[in-house]
Amino acid sequence: MRKFVVRGMLPLVAALVSPAHARVAEMQVDTLVTPLATAEGISVRLQWPDGRDSGDLVLQAKRLVIGESGYAFRNLRWTCTATRTAPERLACDGELRAANAPASSLRAQWTAGQLELQLTQAKSTVGLVGPARAASPTVDAASARTVPSGSTTPSAGNASDWTVAVARMPAAWLAPLLAGLWPDGSITGGTVDATWSVGTRSDGTLVAGGPLAVAGLGIDTADGTLAAASLDAGGRVHLQWGATTRIDADLAVRGGELLAGAVYANLPETPIDVGWTLAGSGTAWALERAVWSDPGVFDVQATAALDTEADAALRALDARFAVPDAALATPRYFESLLGSVGLAGLRARGALRGRVLLDAGGLRQLELAPSALDLDDADRRFGVEGLDGTLRLTAADGDSTLGWRAAHVHGIALGATRLALRSGGMGLALAQPATIPALGGSIVLPKFSWRRAADAGESAAFDLALTLRDIDLRQLSAALGWPAFSGTLSGDIPGVRYADSVIDLQGGLTLRLFDGSMRIDALTLERPFGVAPTMTAAIAFDNLDLKPLTGAFGFGEITGRLGGHVRGLRLVDWTPVAFDARFETSTSAKDPRRISQRAVRDLTEVGGGGIAAGLQAQVLKVFQTFGYARIGLSCTLANDVCRMGGLDGGDGGYTIVEGAGLPRVTVVGHQRQVDWPVLVARLKAATEGQAPIID
């Protein structure tokens, strides 16, 4: 039997339909090429007994490749019963099998030059309808060979040559097509209904498109950065493959879940309009448009350029967004993103709009414009009411203003403020000093600047200076949960720098409090917003008034003036692990030096010592206060053990209170080594008035 190549599928079908009275017709074809598919190793056998209106057809192919779609099948065999229902109508219905696909039912019908195919598997169907464009060959029954009756070259066709209709088709059947367009993606579930036109243009470009509906769609990527589940969508899609690949889509999406990077969205049942146009070839792609419109909640419009072989595939992005209702948009779209930066449960109300520009070098412009925006941190670390203005970060110079009606940070209330800002080189700085009302006084920011990571080194950095003016210590103590200090707090911080997750206090901090001063030097804070934050510092006290100080701590009353230091201070997760501390009263101050009975008992308990060189315990309770010459106490903490000391010391102990006048009392400590947790418990008991009663 002679083998040859047939250019076109329709002549083969016509040969089977021709009105010959053949008992057996056979055909072998090396290669069959159509606008939609290429088949190799084809054999056809039609057995049609004389006088019968039906026959048996067996069609086999070693390989079938459908265009550039990625679909390829091996060792196909279709066995069906052919029936002639009219002179120009032939139908054949039977089982189709392939080595790499489940068995299906295939029905084919040839009617007046038009081929119709319908593939059925379980509840899913795929139909194909295409017109004939070639002259019809005849079949010589005697020799069982095909005799061409003219040219068999089909026309080039156009986009309407074929119609493909699918119903309840598993979305997973699209996996080969998706593999060519999106190698890292996979389909995990869902069904598809569509009626598309498919064909080729004169330049060989394959085009397809039409209505599309998906139900319960699930997708995933190997790295887990993009995923979807239970998505329902409907609309129109248009695809083309050729020198340039192009995908146009406009869909209405309802329900389901979507994950893109750190953004997780639980979508509503109300429709969201989603559209995009993606075009490109090789590794260069252009997102000519991208639209996401959740009416009244969240809208995005963007364009982008991508290079799939570059380290950073996103080469350019211009995205504009609007959040008309932050109360709805925050839990719907931003909950997971906020959680990834430590802001889980953030509540928002009001509106926000903005724009983001990126290029291959990173962020080039960021614009945020809040309107009557309220933010409340779930952990009450901060909050703001009535945030409005425009914040611009640009490569070129630009001005911004940002203000709020009220705010709070860790319980510290901040009054209405408006900041004048200036950006340049993607940094941000105060254009003029700002004054923020706070705690009965004010916080003055003479300087503030921020630089992004690309300009600052390994990470972003900010620098600021601030001045505290007449901060009410009682309000500050209540806000921070401190003892009830009284008076006011003023001071200057000439410089604070944050970079590489470390806060450095530059130039030291001087605070005026308790009618004296406190100086903080060499302060660094590592990982302030991370795990196990660590702080180091050196602190010096000078001329503090002991009466309000001891009253604030509930330690019993002591009058006089106090100085001292805490050197080598180190805190891990806000717990002291090392320091060298010493406190001693002034002998030159003019203030009276008196100590209450309660303070004597508290110091005795802290030092683990007793009363000596003075009144006996039975007499002690008769007097309310005592005179003293000096008070001194020290502690050097290392390895969770505090080495205690006082004014002097020897084998017999160390003096904490040196008495003077009448009545007088001297307090001596005897325990040199004290476990830090034990000392903390003693201090806590003393400040809570739980020291032992002296009988």
TrEMBL record:
Signal sequence extent: 1-22
UniProt keywords, alphabetically: Signal
Keyword Signal in annotation: yes
Superkingdom to which the source organism belongs: Bacteria
Name of the protein: Dicarboxylate transport domain-containing protein
UniProt organism field: Chiayiivirga flava
